[in-house]
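Inputs:
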Amino acid sequence: MRMSAQPKLSDNSVSRCNAYRKKILELSRTVSALHVAPAFSCIEIVDVIYNQWLSKKPGLANHRDVFLMSKGHGCLIQYIILHEKGLLSDDDIKNYCKPGGRLGAHPDYGTSGIEASTGSLGHGLGMAVGRAMGKKLQNTPGEVFCLISDGELQEGSTWEAIMMGANKKLKNLTVFVDNNDFSGLERMSEAHPAFYPLADKFKAFGWDTYEIDGHDAMAIHQSIALAHDAPKVIICKTVKGKGVSYMEHEPIWHYRSPNDKEYAIAMQELACHEK
Amino acid sequence: MRNKFADVFFEESKRNDKLVLVVADISPAGSVAKFREAYPDRFINTGVAEQIMIGMTAGLAQEGMRPVAYTIATFTLYRPFEFVRDDICYQNLPVTMVGVGGGVNYSTLGATHHAQEDISIATSIPNMSVIAPSDPLEVDAATRWCLGTSNGPVYLRLGKAGEPTFTASAEEPWTYGKIRLVKKGSKTAFLTYGGISKIAFQLVAEKKYQDASVYSVSTIKPLDVERLRWILTHYDEVVVIEETSGTGTLGNQIKRLAFDHGAHATIRHFHLQDEFIHIYGSHDDVLNAHGLSFEKIKSTLAA
């Protein structure tokens, strides 16, 4: 069980996340199309998971937290952080989406630091439920973190996983919903209004349910720190394309890479955020 | 076959606490019920939810367990197909996916329950091994291999219940990835797998084919190409009998290999039709409608 009454959030997550956004933009210059905006919406979530929680705990044999990026199209932020941690090399980053490289626009199991091959939506949570169950059966310590997109909640398989996570009372499973309210095509709450509010659905399945600002690192950190006796979901209200004005809430940036002018504007805006 | 699988699984589970059975609302008959009683934590029923059945097995395998997914063949392979492909096969995880009632075993339940093209589908996925034992004794050996030795994805295609035993005095033991000589002969070789093997053994009980060989090709993928080449060049006639349809059948693979190798053996291929035949009745009734009966094959071979 996780308990930390007054969790400390180490250092400067704001400037760190800003730097991550810049690196992602730089990388986006090297390929014709990739998922900038969906990575930007979950940067603070992934940052807190990797930089505050995901580690081997000293003194606990076999302890291993794992993180599954179910929304595989957000993997750019994973790559940047794994590179920073030395699990991916300069060459890995340089050869992103290129022949001879091993990093694609969706993450592959077997690449250092990547725990699941995702990209097709609605797969990660089922695997996360299996991993949490595997830890429970073997009495292995460690939390299973899984980040899903709100679009994945439209996949029936996600609800099969939500049902089983609750049935098996997986208190070692924490799920984040990157609730940026945009799928590839349009604003989801407008296209599918009957689906909302989201939190009620999880509560009905018996999940410990929280709703927070998904760009507030302290809120993310504190939500993770809360102990739970059922699987936990943290619904993170986020902004797709967060940090670059022309990308925010604009579906086209699910796919597009910025041109020279757009790139310059984006870097300028991010530089301003730092001040 | 399913009872033999259950017996072996239960036996192995006593020795290996990593074995987990994940089922999708299929009744735990025979030794599966005993397993459930003895190890309730390691028996997981996802309910009528096959995507999570497969997804969970992937996660369990990644945590070091040896999971087995188990339900009726159509629901093991077809309903959660993309999960089989992406979660298990793409990630190359040691998960055995058991399909009960492969072919048209569920003869009264209609085409929704007929896994009549499962072999073609399963063999088409990279990393997947496909095993369809010919009798309960082969189920015993194949199950032990899946549970103890396999280190990748396996589609283990079983029949249902009451299949006779043919391989008690086989010329060779069952080995994964190997074509097995069961009855030694010459001139004609019968190549078969699964419960439909019974027709090959009925045929070699006839005077005309008493000198024929029977091979069990229970590992359909990876195919024992080396031995197939030998068979194609050492027999005049090769008769393939299989309860499946589609482009990836054993017969089609053999014909392709024969062409590539310039082999001149006559190849006769008996298989399910590429058709939803609307018929209910016994397993034999449905097979007969597809042209897979002893009498029909015998008369076709005689023609």
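The radius of gyration of chain B is 19 Å. Flag for discussion at group meeting.
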